[in-house]
Amino acid sequence: MLRDTSPSIVLHALSVTPVSAGASGALEASGNANPDFDFRFDSTLGVGGGYIFNLKTTASGTWNLNFKITGDPSTHSAMFGVK
After folding, report:
1. What angle do CA 28, 22, 34 make, to 5 degrees?
2. pTM (2 d.p.)
3. Is there a contact between 27 and 14 (Cβ–Cβ < 8 Å)?
4. Cβ neighbours for 61, distance < 8 A, ≥ 6 positions apart
5. Where on the phi/psi map is residue 22: left (φ > 0), alpha (ψ -120 to 50), or beta?
6. Does residue 14 contact residue 34 with C-beta atoms inside 8 Å?
7. Looking at residue 71, what DSSP letter applies?
8. Which of 7, 47, 61, 76 could lock onto 20 through a cystine, CB 3.0 to 4.6 A?
9. What does the pLDDT look like over 4-24, one tens digit per residue?
10. pLDDT tens, residue by residue, 47-57
């Protein structure tokens, strides 16, 4: 879990994988909002700021957005749903 936020900590999206049956798709950023598949840091989110990744997907279902964090060798994920 990411405990500190900072513009110097980069979150880099790796893939989007289906959790629910029938969902499939490739990682596709929406427009040019995420150069190089990196999340954007926004200092106005929460108490210490937060991260934004605009993702484009057309398939409904439950997904994991898989990503790496600067200085951490582990792959992390955030689950989300599309109706």
Report:
1. 10
2. 0.79
3. yes
4. 18, 19, 20, 21, 22, 23, 81, 82
5. left
6. no
7. T
8. 61
9. 788 889 999 998 888 877 666
10. 889 999 988 87
